[in-house]
Design brief:
Number of helices: 3
Number of strands: 22
Strand content: over 45%
Shape: globular
Oligomer: single chain
CATH topology of the largest domain: Immunoglobulin-like
Order of helices and strands: EEEEEHEEEEEHEEEEEEEEEHEEE
CATH superfamily of the largest domain: Immunoglobulins
Length: 241
């Protein structure tokens, strides 16, 4: 007797664990998406963040549902925004919800944008299994704060459409350590369409960091007289030359 035809062209099985069920299709696990506890709105496959909830946070916690993973598996988070950030590869160890912390710069860098978040589990055979995608939207500011530019030691910040006079301040952070190596004084940002403010990195700071990759961004205070909260620009990622 001939075996029945495989009309689907694939082999599907299901493995059930005490806490969670996942499916295996052609030897590949289908994994539920990550989730973010601080999201203020959650839809299937889409979560929303606002900067007012993250204002003082140095990291953003992302939860991975690894209750059905094997202890010998390894996992990694992939955060695909303006640039792609990947967490360190870690062993699952005891299965359960795992928390990966995304650095502050990576969610600030995506204000007003969508980020695609996945994670990858690699089993003992070296086979990677990619989770379903979570889209994360970081709510926009009233203005799009584009990255600054740098010319020699001069960091320039462009007028971004704000009304009235704001003030701005530049930060330079070393990539390898995350340490701030310089912060400027506040300068006015005038309400002029082609206005650029210039912030000059001191010679000693610049020369001590030649050859080092750095992150540069700026903060804007829209109403300094009222002590309003700051807004933060996207990052320029550059090696000082």
């Amino acid at each position: 007797m001939n075996p029945p035809a495989d009309t689907a062209g694939s082999i599907t099985s299901e493995v059930t664990f005490p806490i969670r069920t996942y499916r295996i299709i052609n030897g590949r696990r289908t994994l539920a998406p990550a989730t973010i506890p601080k999201a203020y709105t959650k839809q299937p496959g889409h979560e929303f963040l606002r900067m007012s909830d993250l204002y003082d946070d140095e990291e953003l916690s992302v939860e991975l549902p690894l209750s059905s993973a094997q202890g010998s598996d390894r996992f990694q988070l992939i955060w695909q925004g303006r640039v792609t950030w990947e967490s360190e590869i870690q062993a699952v160890g005891a299965p359960g919800v795992k928390v990966v912390r995304v650095p502050r710069r990576e969610f600030i860098d995506n204000v007003g944008l969508d980020v695609q978040v996945t994670y990858v589990i690699t089993d003992t055979t070296g086979t990677p299994h990619t989770s379903e995608r979570l889209t994360v939207t970081v709510d926009p500011y009233p203005y799009t704060l584009v990255p600054p530019q740098i010319h020699d030691k001069d960091v320039t910040v462009q007028y971004s459409g704000q009304s009235g006079t704001h003030i701005a301040r530049v930060d330079v952070v070393r990539f390898t350590t995350g340490d701030r190596i310089w912060q400027s004084d506040w300068q006015p940002m005038f309400d002029q369409q082609n206005y650029w403010a210039t912030f000059t990195i001191p010679n000693n700071v610049y020369n001590a960091n030649i050859g080092n990759p750095v992150f540069i961004n700026y903060a804007i205070n829209p109403a300094p007289a009222n002590g309003s909260t700051l807004m933060f620009s996207r990052y320029l990622r550059v090696t000082l030359r």
